[in-house]
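Continuing the batch. This is chain 6 of the set; chains 1 through 5 are on the previous pages. Same settings as before, nothing changed between runs. Recording input and output for traceability.
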Amino acid sequence: MKKITLILSLLIVVLASCKQSKKTHAEAIPSQYVKEIHSYAQPNNAVIKHLNLAISVNFNEEIISGTASYDITNNNATILILDTKFLTIEKVEADGIATTFELGTFDEQLGQPLKISITKNTKKVTVHYKTTHKTEALQWLSPQQTADKKHPFLFTQGQAILTRTWIPIQDSPQIRITYNATVTVPKELMAVMSAENPKEKTANGIYHFTMKQPISPYLIALAVGDINYKPISNRTGVYAENSMLDKVHTEFSDMEKMVTAAENLYGTYAWEQFDVIVLPPSFPFGGMENPRLTFATPTVIAGDKSLTSLIAHELAHSWSGNLVTNATWEDFWLNEGFTVYFEMRIMEAIYGKERAEMLALIGRQDLEDELENFKDQPNDTKLKLDLTNRNPDDGMNSIAYDKGYLFLRTLEENVGREKFDAFLKSYFSAHAFSTMNTEKFIQYLNTHLLEKNNINFNTNEWVYEPGIPNNQVTIHSDKFKNILQTLHTFIENKEITNVTTSDWTPQEWVHFIRNFPDEMDLTHFKILDNTFNLTNSSNSYIAMVWYEQAIKHNYRENNIDANIEGFLTHVGRRWYVTTIFNAYKKSNKLDEALTIYKKTRANYHSVTVNTIDNLLGYTK
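Output for chain 6:
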């Protein structure tokens, strides 16, 4: 009996050991990556963990060439799949030995899968490659397209899925990697990246970079030009061309205050350095939150810090987006809705509640315009999107930004700011350097905020239903209320009296101009233009909304047509360009728009070109 008992006991131990061994093995190789419709990669089989980039930048041929070497985690796979688009793949090595590879069928949006033969023990893969003239992430600028007009310039723009056009990569936001890079450029130029950066030019044009925190591929960024650096504090500073450096430094002199305000809200800044580079005007976005080095448009250099909410926005991405990243582009609102909310809190902390509320109200107006644009596509007004067979850019609009903000602002109003701040701080801390999808966030929200505080909230309606729920918070601004009264009086009397417009912020001017009534006659335009010289405004934001209204109302005085064309020639910021060309289209002036666009198209980055081509129905 004892012998039988002993045998049974041993059997139980062995079975338990086998079960535990199987569990341990399963935990060592989890299927942690969700299905990604915008990437060919199969990261649950083999995934990149570190990139070592060694490239040369050739301005004469407008090509980047070199090697991309990857440290991989291999799940007994015999194929490593990378995303590529418009790249020439010259040869591939696995653990230092030449291996076979195949480029799959080309897709207009996704490019081609690069299928590399590996063994189950392969740890390192190296791809020898070069870009082509079709590469969409790169914009090569002639000296004439720069501020100083002496040397050429290059910058990259990887969001959403364009990094694959200049680096073979597993181009999904859920695949976070560290990277090193050695970049060789002409000796008179400086290279900077979303990494640890030089503060001055090297003698030989060779630059070394390290990004030790894991980031998503769309955040790998490079800029090369005749630039210099000027510090603001020991962890903040600016890069710009020589003629702009002092202006940029003055405009962004509150950067350290912004970092401190952000840390006071939601925890320590995790990236050591926060610098900004101001690029030539063809840069397609207001800003791009590349870790350690935000890329920014020169259109925010207004001379009075009035448009620096953009810097607060890109800084906020250091938490929402860079630290906790949307797992897929269908979860994009998790990046941008949180960032707009965080931006408003930074602006409130530094510049006061009223300025933050004006910014929030402008965003609310943008959202209303977007809802109107999508009235025939209501599913596109959901926060969680279905982007099957669509470009991720289709979801990068005011819905993600401003509906996302409104959702979080309404949550704050329901639970109280103190509890909401504690929740956000814990959310960023608990998920630092990881990715998040909508379903996981809702689960975390329910567990750590709503159920904890016994609060019922219509989260699913906000996230999964079109439109704006009825429990949305109402945003107030006394200054905007006064602006509308001033506009009403002006329409009645054709003069602005008893108002000190010299104290108006650009946000007040934008609110004033945006709310022109449809029936406003040209006399009003002429009075305003002659009084305030709006056609020649040096503030790009004011100029954009003024030109939009002038086109809609057919105002043609004071050489405004030439000014609009000049603006569209020199400014490549997609939001501004799209707004103006859309005004032409909606005003049945498509021929005028196309005439201008044929002249200006070559100045724009591919991100802007793709948008305007579709808007105007342009074909070469």
